UniProtKB/TrEMBL annotation:
This is trypsin. It comes from Labeo rohita. Transmembrane segments: none annotated. Residues 26-208 form the Peptidase S1 domain. The keyword Protease does not apply. GO terms for molecular function: serine-type endopeptidase activity. Its EC number is 3.4.21.4. It catalyses: Preferential cleavage: Arg-|-Xaa, Lys-|-Xaa. Pfam families: Trypsin (PF00089). GO terms for cellular component: extracellular region. InterPro entries: Peptidase_S1_PA, Peptidase_S1_PA_chymotrypsin, Peptidase_S1A, Trypsin_dom, TRYPSIN_HIS. Keywords: Disulfide bond, Signal, Zymogen. It comes from the Eukaryota. GO terms for biological process: proteolysis.
Length: 208
């Protein structure tokens, strides 16, 4: 683990989202405006999308550590909107090295962070940009509305979207979340819970 990886991990810890339900994507969402989220990254195995990610520097992508559980070799696609459109000038880059959070065990959602060091620097343009990371730590107030996006499934066991989708979710009170999930799964210092129109947590493993 390099010093830069540790610093990046430390800076990102306060901004994790608790992922509650697997194999579901953007529920009750809509297609995002093409390239309106130029920091979004598709993390892939054998050219198949498995997880979303953020471009946090020209050499690093942040995603979830569980995304590599059964996939030792990952690649990333930058600047994409429609993952099946080969004419939109998206860029595929191989991953040089993997840097999971040192306290990630795979037995819970805690510290579920993975930094991907790219084989070459990303060339920034209108469709490929860095995400803005908050300068200060601090809790996001309950009932705040947040925006999420991803290429995950549109419904449980349903079809996966090739187009980037987005929707709004609402931040849940930490005590309510802890009551629902238990202290073993939820840590208020590392995570937050959100819920969508259906009244349940709609941010899932294939989305960011």
């Amino acid at each position: 683990m390099t010093i830069i990886s540790l610093l990046l991990l430390a800076s990102l810890l306060p901004h994790l989202t608790f992922t509650a339900r697997a194999n579901v994507g953007i529920v009750n969402g809509k297609e995002a405006k093409p390239h309106s989220r130029p920091y979004m990254v598709s993390v892939q195995v054998k050219e198949q999308h498995i997880c979303g990610g953020f471009l946090i520097s020209d050499r690093f992508v942040m995603t979830a550590a569980h995304c590599r559980k059964n996939s030792p070799v990952l690649t990333v696609v930058l600047g994409a909107h429609n993952l099946r459109n080969t004419n939109e000038n998206s860029v595929r880059i191989k991953v040089k090295s993997y840097h999971p959070h040192p306290q990630y065990t795979g037995k819970s959602f805690h510290n579920d962070i993975l930094l991907l060091r790219l084989e070459k620097n990303a060339q920034l343009n209108n469709n490929i940009k860095l995400i803005s990371i908050p300068a200060k730590e601090g809790d996001i107030e309950a009932d705040s509305v947040c925006s999420i996006a991803g290429w995950g499934r549109l419904e449980t066991n349903g079809k996966q979207s090739n187009h980037l989708m987005e929707t709004n979710v609402t931040v849940m009170n930490n005590k309510e979340c802890e009551s629902k999930w238990g202290k073993k799964e939820f840590s208020a210092s590392l995570m937050m819970c959100v819920y969508g129109e259906g009244g349940s947590c709609d941010v899932c493993e294939n989305n960011i």
